[in-house]
Write a structure and sequence with these properties.
The chain has 50 residues and is α+β, with helices and mostly antiparallel strands. The chain is built from two helices and two strands. The chain has a two-stranded antiparallel sheet with strand order 1-2. β1 and β2 form a beta hairpin. It is flat, with a radius of gyration of 16 Å.
């Protein structure tokens, strides 16, 4: 998979393809360990990482 570039009003924009299907299990495992990133969960994630 390669990135594509498109031009718009603001200039060149990189368009990345969706997640590689082979990485779906990795993304699911990450989601089980880390909550969704929000203002409320950011501190929890930082505590867990340190």
């Amino acid at each position: 998979m390669t990135d594509q570039t498109t031009a718009d009003f603001f200039g060149a924009t990189t368009i990345r393809p969706p997640l590689d299907p082979e990485l779906a299990p990795v993304e699911e495992a990450r989601g089980a360990v880390f909550p969704a990133l929000t203002d409320e969960t950011l501190q929890e994630i930082r505590t867990f990482m340190c």
